[in-house]
Amino acid sequence: MGSKPHLALVPADREVAIRRVVSVGAAVVERVTVVAHGRVTVVVGLDALPLAGGDAESVAEEFVQHRFASEPEFRAGPPPDEEFFLAILQGVPRHQVEIDRSIAESLAENWKLNRIDSILRAILRAAAFELIDRPDVPGKVVIDEYVELAHAC
Q: What is d(CA 123, CA 48) in angstroms, rounded to the nearest whole number?
């Protein structure tokens, strides 16, 4: 990943949206474990994907090179697990069509996925991906931690 100026991938008018997501993350970080802190960063990163034109590499670079080290909200908890963050941040877009189809099939009649708040969509997508791609993590743990994160939002 090359070097880019801080927040170069996000138009200035979208910085407010990112700050909102980071604030939610900061509120959650105060109460979570090391692993759950990784899930908070994943959700914040996934929520930033549309703002970056869906480019997971740019979002990953932004977080790893700038936000993890300089944002007080991310420094408040244990250091994020970069490998975990990157695996989910890059894995969700690769499987997003099938993940979104599964989520949409589970919604109430007449509900569309785009009606769900972007942070909650990110939570659902990350949880679904982890349940599919991380057989080493018990499903109950994945569900419990993402539900806890959703409650904090």
A: 12
Structural tokens at position 8: 């170069």
The 10s digit of each residue's pLDDT in 26-82 is: 554 444 455 566 788 888 889 888 877 778 888 888 877 777 777 766 666 667 778
Q: How far apart are alpha carbons 136 and 130 in whole angstroms?
A: 10
Q: What pTM was computed for the model?
A: 0.74
> Based on the number of CB atoms within 10 Å of its own CB, is 148 exposed (0-12), middle (13-18) or buried (19 or more)?
middle
**Residue owning tokens 């057989």:** 135
Instruction: Give residue for tokens 């590499």.
Output: 57
Among 78, 95, 88, residue whose Cα is nearest residue 137: 88
How far, in Å, CA of 107 to CA of 73, rounded?
32
